[in-house]
Amino acid sequence: MVTVDAYALKQASCRARLLAASAGFRHDDWEDLRQELLTDCFRRSAKFDPSRGEWPGFVNGVMRNQAAVLALRQRRHAAEVFVEDLVMAEGIDSDSVLDILDRRPRVDPAKSMEVKVDVAQVVNILPPQLRSLACLLMEMSVKDACRCIGKSRSRAYQMIRQIREAFVRAGFRSECRRRSRT
């Protein structure tokens, strides 16, 4: 018989509560979501390697990934609603239905192309080292990019700061706000 780990149980409860609150699940699904998260964690527990990290980190990673999978499935399931039924029932025009189902604003293809061109122009005026890092970061993580360019992570983050400054100078505004360390 498998014993329930207190840490895993707590994490599953928290993640299930977050999914029920923000991913489109019903509040009644909380217990099922928690069991799904625990089941996946225990199924993967055989792959836990203490030499690579500690148990809480493993549990966090597994549950975060499984919660993302569950949220994606739920989102896809919600998109299966027939558009015509929703339009007739709610009196909404068919163009705005996809925005409602998707829960994010529709992207204008022309605007998207303009942004791509602007990004390419900024990247092209960067010094060679920054340009190569920017191109690598479009394809891979910071850790992998550090390995490719042979720089430490702290140096790479300094370079990323310089890249961001170039984008700000070019008129891009930062969408990310740093958390205060207070």
Structure overview:
With 182 residues, the chain is mostly helical. It folds into two domains: 6-78, no CATH class; 109-169, Arc Repressor Mutant, subunit A, CATH 1.10.10. Helix content is 69%, strand content 0%. It contains nine helices and no strands. Helix 7 (128-137) runs antiparallel to helix 8 (142-149). The longest helix has 24 residues, at 55-78. The termini are far apart. The model is unreliable at 178-182 (pLDDT under 50).
**Helix content, binned percent:** 55-70%
**Total number of beta strands:** 0
Q: What order do the SSEs take from the amino end to the carboxyl end, as H and E?
A: HHHHHHHHH
Give a quick account of the main beta sheet: strands, pairing sense, barrel closure: none
The total number of structural domains is 2
What are its keywords?
182 residues, disordered C terminus, mainly alpha, 9 helices, 2 domains, Arc Repressor Mutant, subunit A
Question: What is the secondary structure topology, with strand pairs?
Answer:
Blueprint lengths: L5 H17 L7 H15 L10 H24 L4 H8 L3 H9 L6 H17 L2 H10 L4 H8 L3 H17 L13
Helix pairs in contact: 1-2, 1-3, 2-3, 7-8, 7-9
Question: In short, what is this structure?
Answer:
This protein is an all-alpha fold and 182 residues long. It has helices spanning 6-22, 30-44, 55-78, 83-90, 94-102, 109-125, 128-137, 142-149, 153-169.
